[in-house]
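Researcher: We're teaching a course module on how sequence relates to structure. For the next exercise, students receive a sequence and then see the predicted structure as tokens, so they can try to spot secondary structure elements on their own. Here is the exercise chain.
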Amino acid sequence: MRIERLILSQDGLILSLGGRPLNGISIEYPKSMIQAGKEGKVSLSCDIEETGVTSHCHITQSSGEESFDAESLQYVRQAHYKPKLNHGIAVKEYARQYLFQFQKEQ
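Model: And here is the predicted structure for the students to work with:
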């Protein structure tokens, strides 16, 4: 099982990132959560199709804050990755795990 981890600070800096999507999408720390001084973690799972697009994305553990959950889910649904290869042939990857951590500046 592969786990991608992304840590995002309030100033928009990505502090840690696993596999980067090929299509260069970005994620933002929700402004309402910055103003409220909130942090959160969201766990998700997606399949990666043979074409590299994500499918069957869902939250496996909510942050408890809808805006963190929505931003994370939107990011993985838009991501395009290099597909997993099996003997040189692209195959579907099931249940890739993602952990998004939104944290205040250190």
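Model: If you want an answer key for the exercise: Residues 24 and 79 are 8 Å apart (CA to CA). The helical segments are 31-36, 66-78.
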